[in-house]
Amino acid sequence: MRRQMQEDEQKARHLEESISRWVGSHTDLHEVWVGEPRAVGPEGWHIVGKSECSSHCGQGYRSLDVHCMKYSVHKGQTVPVDDHYCSDQLKPPTREPCHGDCVLTRWHYSEWYQCSRSCGGGERSRESYCINHFGHRLADRECQELPHVMTENCNEFPCPSWATSEWSECPVTCGKGTKRRQVWCELNEDHLSDGFCNPSTKPESLRPCELHTCASWQVGPWGSCTATCGHGYQMRAVKCVDALLSAVLDDRLCYGASRPSDRQDCIMISCPVILKTGTTSLPAVPMGKTAQWRYGSWTPCSASCGRGNQARYVSCRDAHDGIADESYCAHIPRPAEISICFSPCGEWQTGDWSPCSASCGHGKTNRQVLCIKYHQPINENHCDPDVRPSAEQECNVAACQPSYSNFPSSSEQPNHFPGRNFPLTHKPEDNEKWGVHPSIRGNQWRTGPWGSCSSSCAGGVQRRVVVCQDENGQSAHYCDVAAKPPEAKHCDTGPCPQWNYGSWGECTQTCGGGIKSRFVICQFPNGQMSQEQNCEILNKPPSVAQCHVHACPDDVSWHRGPWNSCSASCGKGLKYREVLCVDQVQGKLEEKYCSHLRKPRTHKACRSGRCPSWKAKRWKECSVTCGPGVEQRDVYCRLRGVGPVAEEMCDWSTRPHSQRQCWRQDCIQSQWVAGEWSDCLTSCKMKETHRQVQCIDAQNIQVNESFCDPSTRPLSIKKCKNLPCKYIVVTGDSSQCAGNCGFSYRQRITYCIEIRSTDRYKLHQLWPIDYRECPVLPSPQTYKCNLRSCLHMATWKVGKWSKCSVTCGVGVMERRVECMAENGWFSDLCLKRLKPDAQKKCYVNDCKTFTSCKEIQGENNITKDGDYYLNIEGRIIKVYCADMHLEDPKEYISLVKGEEDNFSEVYGFRLQNPYECPFNGSRRLDCECTNDYLAAGHTVFSKIRIDLTSMQIKTTDLLFAQTVFGKAVPFATAGDCYSAARCPQGRFSINLAGTGMKISSTAKWLAQGSYASVVIHRSQDGTKVYGRCGGFCGKCVPHLMTGLPIQVI
């Protein structure tokens, strides 16, 4: 029993602590005891707390917190205990009715203001005020305990930004130029109008560039005057000089228009005048002594390289620089008119001297001499023979000492061997061709010249002939073997070129099998390129390989979220949505898993109603009539369709000026002057007469009329008082002559006659006039005309109606309508107002639109190729359907602009020096080139195939293409093997104008090959693209990943 009481007391203490904590956290209830114990005794029910009323206005309920309590002697206060101690008492209800005081408050908000930024994350705010449930405004402190949201984030999508291409190469080969790059506004790699990007942060698209100083004209000093007296001229040298190399160049490499003059006139002292006999005592100067030869500058050499001719004019001139007979210049040698000139095509290069052909005495050494151009040997005729280095020269080695071992001494030995008819010693000249090496018995080793190296690179062997000969040069068998010269030696002409390759590029697909590529070149260790045939072709590494061959997942897709509201509150803006790559259970994946699928667009243009704009009325009159003044006009903010609105709704920075200065010319006293009136009697048709009125200044000079007072201006026009002209209208009826003229319908023929009077006392004369000039309508009292078998009658002739211009829908029918005289000639006598219609509308069956040629083939059972109309992305486009007799017909677009604007080319010329870009990159037929590129070709296109599923051009379809020469080149492709110095000459052109299609802005071109460069120009509307591509050798093709996408305009 005691144990039970201890447990009950522990429970009570625990309950007491819990309630104490609760009461301590609700201090407003700490001293509130609602109700007394319901039973008399140590224990009882107590209400320790109440909830808020469930209704703020009217009848409601509140909850009561009821506990069993007893008085604790130990603590001296009432404490909670377990409910079973009060089980003998009725527990009071835990809920009671209540009544709200009906004073409700809440925050009332205005509409959100415009976002502080149209993109990139901004903030918008709104106004608020506290109101009660009756809508009456209260002090804000009445609602201060309620949640209060005044601002929120908005437009949290990225802003369009400027994007740039790589800088182009400097377009000049020397001097100063300007390089360019493309700058566009984009969002998520999609091109937008520039208006969506901040113009103040737009990157520059042009930048100056400077290369080495260009070749320029340099002049020498003026020569002496060609005349010793009177007029003559003097010459000077003018050369095109490369300042960097200090070398004289061909004149064509300098700008011809700026070439300084090489001749100028000069005046010496006056020549003695030859007077008539008896008039002077001065001696006469004979003509033969004053005449001189004159000659011009040499023309350029007739050969650009090698030997040629150059010419100049030579003439005999007298003292007054007039042309004289050549006999008067016979006292001076005549200058040459033609001279031989030589322009080297290459330069001489020499090898090392070979060893001396003799090991002792006199010998010869030689070396290789080659004519070299751009590191390649060429014919020696292309190098200057006058400066050719020698290929052979003499060499001297120590004198030869014959060996006499095992022979008698010189004192004992005769000069000749017994029975031999030759001296002991050999002649020095015998060593000129063969190297001589001492041996026994007078025999010697002789060597021939070294042969060429057995390998062109990486080490080889040179060989020569070594023979044993006696003193007479005859073959011998006894030479010292130990002294035999070597017959072979190693040679090394440098390392061999090896295959070198770059890193792999990106795979064209992320799954399903793509292609990756890399550059593979033949290269020396020093980096210099070599031709591919100089490397081992069997060891060439692959330049293309497959990648990502695993199958693409078929259970993924792009999920399109809802479009957000337009970013602009008025005018043009952008809408955005979220596009996610998801699996079959809508789980989010990385975008790479959907890269094989075409991603839907994430944004689109939108319009949120018209924006208010400033409207300016016309300028009012200047405040003065002369001198400086002020012009004003009314400017207001207007919303179209609404009218004037508050000026705060318009952008103040764009508000037009409402006032400007004006200037009337200097205030000068001017006045009106009127001329004589013209005569009214010249024609009865004249209704008014004129005279000239001018404003003149104080000097009687005509000035602008604004200088005279307009209120005092005299009349310049007044009515004439002549009697009106009289006319008679004569009308004929076709029924009078229907049988003769053959009219198919009634027609009235009307003539107008004017009654003129040259003198009021003379009879009136009748003058027929053009009916169009008749000022009166036909009179009801008409005179019958005698048409005399309609000799001059004409009528409208009509042809049959043509077929309707369309096969379905609304079209037009036409017919010929011509005015014909009865004799069959064309006439202009028919009345225009009676002309029958030449056109009328027609209607055939309702048109049914198709989306592919296969649909047309299946629905209408058509097997004929031709032009049809397809519904492509909501637009009706004219498409040529081909292979309609087969199961899968193909769609083609006919190129309206024709083959001249739609071609692809691989240029066939190759520079002899591929490391330059002559003529500033322009194409010239007189370049130092060879036309031998095997891949060259030029293809023109009249139609191109399109894939309506992927909306791409099939560039390799050549069904409607014609190869003009060489090999076929795919659409939108170009290349060359012209230069390694970024000097592309291959071209392609695309012109889709008039087709209803354009090249998508996402289209990109990929450079392939060695030293490849690409220059692409696009029209603003996307219908035209022009490209220049090439390298050494290189080309450009539409990017393998995107193809050549097109869009409907």
UniProtKB/TrEMBL annotation:
Entry superkingdom: Eukaryota
SUPFAM superfamilies: TSP-1 type 1 repeat
Subcellular location: Secreted
Keywords: Integrin, Metal-binding, Repeat, Secreted, Signal, Zymogen
Protein source organism: Myotis brandtii (Brandt's bat)
Record carries keyword Repeat: yes
GO molecular function, one term: zinc ion binding
One GO CC annotation: extracellular region
Single GO biological process annotation from the record: integrin-mediated signaling pathway
Keyword RNA-binding: no
Main localization of the protein described in the UniProt heading: secreted
Protein name: A disintegrin and metalloproteinase with thrombospondin motifs 20
GON domain segment(s): 849-1049
